[in-house]
Write a structure and sequence with these properties.
The protein has helices at 12-29, 45-53, 104-114; strands at 5-10, 36-41, 60-70, 73-82, 92-100, 120-128, 143-147, 153-154, 170-173. It has a six-stranded mixed β-sheet, with helices on both faces. The chain has a single domain, classed as Rossmann fold. By secondary structure, it is α/β, with parallel strands linked by helices. It is built from three helices and nine strands. The radius of gyration is 16 Å and the shape is globular. 31% of the residues are buried. Residues 40, 43, 98 line the site of magnesium ion. Inosinic acid is lined by residues 43, 68-69, 74, 97-106, 152-154, 158-159.
Length: 180
């Protein structure tokens, strides 16, 4: 266990078991639809790679890079750093995200992609931290891996100041490792 990990909250085995379940659900829901999976960079990368391999369907990959976040608080100021490259008009689109926290990122991403006139648009998030939701957030995930308590988490793609993304599990960061 790495130095700054306080506690493992979701083990590799738990992650893989839940992803298999969600994969089966998405496989059933999107049969015959040739969906496009849009990953929100960078936190989603590890989840994305496991999630798409649990979906037994023809599909397409795409990614968006938005910037919204410094340190361990979301700012709510969001810009598109890199947009998707697929024409999403008339396509069945699933947004893949690492965590639904304040909700600002997914609200922004959802509204941004909706303007591209997809046939359908849904949200799949690995983690949901409902205690943190900002007022005025109207989007909600259609597929959720795990609902977690209000703690700052790292690993499995999630970072603190760009560190810890490669931990194979989701963990709580030691409070003393957080620099305000
Ligand atoms: P939002 O607050 O829902 O807009 O989430 C914005 C982004 O903040 C997420 O996509 C994550 O990259 C990051 N984030 C939110 N909560 C955590 C956390 O507990 N650990 C690491 N990153 C987080
Ligand atoms: Mg992120």
């Amino acid at each position: 266990m790495q130095r700054d990990v306080e506690e493992i909250l979701i083990s590799q085995e738990q992650l893989q078991a839940r992803i298999r379940e969600m994969g089966a659900e998405l496989t059933a829901d999107y049969a015959g639809k040739d969906p496009v999976f849009v990953g929100v960079l960078k936190g989603v990368v590890v989840f994305y790679a496991d999630m798409v391999r649990a979906i037994d369907l023809p599909c397409q990959f795409d990614f968006m890079w938005i910037s919204s976040y410094q340190g361990h608080e979301s700012t709510g100021n969001i810009v598109v750093k890199q947009d998707v490259s697929t024409d999403l008009e008339g396509r069945h689109v699933v947004i893949l995200e690492d965590i639904f926290d304040s909700g600002s990122s997914l609200q922004f991403t959802y509204e941004h992609l909706l303007k591209k006139h997809p046939a359908s648009l849904r949200i799949c998030t690995l983690l949901d931290k409902p205690a943190r939701r900002r007022p005025g957030i109207t989007v909600k995930p259609d597929y959720t891996g795990f609902v977690i308590e209000n703690r700052f988490v790292i690993g499995y793609g999630l970072d603190y100041n760009e560190r810890y993304r490669n931990l194979p599990y989701v963990a709580a960061l030691k409070p003393e490792a957080i620099q305000e």
